[in-house]
Amino acid sequence: MDQIEKKTTTKPIAIVFLAILVGFAFLQFFNKPLEGKPAAKKIGAPREVLSILENSCFNCHSNQQNLSWYDKIAPVSWAVNKDIERAREVLNFSEWNYSEGEHKGKMYAILNMMQSGKMPLHEYTILHPSAKITQKDIDVIKKYTLSLSGNAPAIKEIKNSHQNVEISKSDETVKFPVSPNGVKYTDDYKNWKVISMSTLFDNSIRVIYGNDIAVKAIETEDFHPWPNGSIVVKSVWKQEKLADGEVRPGEFVNAQFMVKDSKKYTDTEGWGFAKFSGKDLHPTGKTASFAKESCIACHRQLAEKTGYLFDVPMKVNTDRLIKNLQK
Q1: Model-level pTM greater than 0.70?
Q2: d(CA 57, CA 48)
Q3: In whole angstroms, what is the distance from residue 224 CA to residue 313 CA?
Q4: Which of 67, 141, 206, 245 could make an S-S bridge to 71, C-beta 3.0–4.6 Å?
Q5: Mean pLDDT over residues 57-68, rounded?
Q6: What is the DSSP letter of 191?
Q7: How many CA atoms lie within 13 A of 142 on its CB side?
Q8: What angle do CA 51, 202, 43 make, to 5 degrees?
Q9: Bigger pLDDT: 221 or 315?
Q10: 206-247 tens-digit pLDDT
Q11: Structure-model confidence comparison of residues 326 and 37, the more confident one
């Protein structure tokens, strides 16, 4: 009697197990392999830097994948392939067709993501523990990234403590540049309200301005989402150190614009990004999609809770804003 009951119980379990195996095997017929691409132009960097990037980044952000066996089995492979395709669009170390300035900007973005713990992704390192970034790795990336700014010290000492930093004024007949995605440079931001200031380890000073719409959104804590028409400009300067130790803005580096237009910039969370660098204010990017491939990636990872905008001042640390940031 017991044997009959045991057989009766075992049979359904065996059928279910067999059905799962058959279904799993059937899925493999729809397991489309990841599209293979040649390494057109690999990133150029010192061997110790490349070693870190190859170990922790290349599996997703390049055309050179070294996937584990379980990454190639459906349905896991579907998610893996989708993540790799998305990662390649944002940053591809095998298609490094960037200028010297763009290379430096990419490395700063990589360093920021590593320091914040956003990259490599936590869920990726759980399955691939060898890809974890150590503090030593971050120090190597940081040293290399800082070296890209040149051998001259970033902080320049000025003997004359009363020397003023002059901002060159553009001739009224000169047309201001326009970014490939349509964002126009304007000098008007210099008369806007300063909403924040910051410094970075590259010895730069950053002054963040907001137009009336952006300032009102901050004052009323109404930036989830930011209202259309908001414009925020981050003006970046090299630091200059006076003889008495005072540090003030020195040489102009760039002006970084963010313009909110939810209908026009749907691929970048409603923000139009632009960077105008140097005395000639030359815009960054060759095509209108440059921000989709670079800028928005960091803002999505690091500033989602503040409407994809960095350096948003906390209004007297109100409970409402603190709760929004903690969500």
Answers
A1: no
A2: 14
A3: 14
A4: 67
A5: 82
A6: G
A7: 15
A8: 30
A9: 221
A10: 899 999 999 999 888 888 899 999 999 999 988 887 777 777
A11: 37
Please state whether the peptide bond connecting residue 12 to the residue before it is cis, i.e. omega within 30 degrees of 0: no
Q: Of the candidates 61, 169, 36, 162, which has an alpha carbon nearest to the alpha carbon of residue 119?
A: 61
Helix and strand element counts for the chain (H, E): 10, 7
Q: How many angstroms separate the CA atoms of 254 and 248, rounded?
A: 16
Phi, psi for 257 (deg, rounded to 5): -100, 140
Lowest-confidence region among 37-41, 164-168, 170-174: 164-168
3-state secondary structure of 16: helix
Show me where the domains of the chain are located.
47-147, 156-326
Task: Tell me the pLDDT band of 115, cut-offs 50, 70 and 90.
Answer: confident
Q: Is domain 156-326 annotated with CATH 3.40.50.1100?
A: no
> Who contacts 112 (Cβ-Cβ below 8 Å, separation ≥6)?
298, 302
Report the interhelical angle of 100-115 vs 295-302 (nearest 10°): 10
Residue identified by tokens 């999609």 is 289
Contact (CB, 8 A) for 112 and 302:
yes
